[in-house]
Write the structure tokens for this entry.
Amino acid sequence: MLKGKKILLGITGSIAAYKSVYLVRLLVKAGAEVKVIMTPSSKDFVTKLTLATLSKNPVLVDMFDDESWANHVMLGRWADVMLIAPLSCNTLAKMAHGQCDNLLMAVYLSATCPVAMAPAMDEDMWYHKATRENLLKIQNFGVKLIPVEKGELASGLKGTGRMAEPETIVQFIKDNFFLPKKLDGKKAFVSAGPTYEPIDPVRFIGNHSTGKMGVAIAHELQNQGAEVTLILGPTQLSVPETGLKIVNVKTAAEMYNACTKIFNKTDIAIMAAAVADYAPATVSNIKIKKKEEELVVVLKKTKDILKSLGEKKKKGQVLVGFALETSNEREYALGKLKSKKADIVVLNSLNDQGAGFGSDTNKITIFDKSGKEFNFDVKSKEEVARDIVDTIIQLYYV
Ligand code: CTP
């Protein structure tokens, strides 16, 4: 599976660098072409000579020497995957802030290939708030985290923070970047976020949706090989640039137009957006002035996008809706599955702890039109997205 694959391995200053020597050997043995970049401080832990011998390629450390300049842009483009193992706390912080003071950072910042990291640090550093924030930040940039392990640490203490074993790292690289993907060649779209329905030029009716769940689903569909369009309502969320096609919309009507425009050419449509059910019947084109004690805004039903896609749906298309409920959850979710002619409805109840708008976690139940039901625990929105996409694959693509 790794035969002929180009892996760029970044090594930073950490005791765990000794494991990278074996990692290079495993990658080369599996048929990969490996080039190594070291940070200056990593040279205190392992030698260029060992890594150059095992990788069968010159090892790079500096941006330039007396006679030549290391082309960091081309290195990033050469690789199929850039792997940073071990990743020290220091390099992690630089990655989170875009600091470019060595060749490894220059390559990371210009890399167009996917990037994975295998951190290594002491437990207290691992759990420090700054580390947590930096990790979250670079995961949001799209960098994949190879989980740390528990065990003996360089300090002599036992705890969490050991770099994953080389065998685990190789398996992670295979599973995440080189497995044939289940949704290769499929086209999908995901609607996400809220909609804003204008009342006048300065006011609108909106809701608390952030779009996090929909964005996570879009990325997971992409991870599984699908070509994904994200139809995104107004949100503050910064969406990692991973090649998603993003269509920005504001109102329910704009979302309706964007969804119906591409539905025909879509294999999988997932309506994760919190679309306004009602919008002001008329929109004032000047700011409404404060006059009476009461102001009545007449609202008119918006078009139900999911329902209208359900009516247009052709054989082979998979249509997924969401149901966010606060009471009679099961009954309402099953009602929506049927009335909107969806194939799947994902229920989340605001009564469940860890579910709902803005939170980083969610708890879902999936109902399928054939009567199957799948229950899941509270998980991060990324894991929930994986569960949703895996369920779609299991039901429709195996
Ligand atoms: N939906 C939609 N268009 C609308 C309203 C909702 O496509 N105008 C979609 C949502 O994206 C979601 C599903 O329908 O996938 C269910 O949305 P929800 O707000 O839970 O249900 P509603 O049908 O709006 O019913 P109610 O608000 O009465 O629960």
Notes: Residues 252, 271, 273, 275, 277, 302, 304-306, 321-324, 336 surround cytidine-5'-triphosphate (CB under 6 Å). Residues 381-396 form the longest helix (16 residues). The mean pLDDT is 94. The longest strand covers residues 318-325.
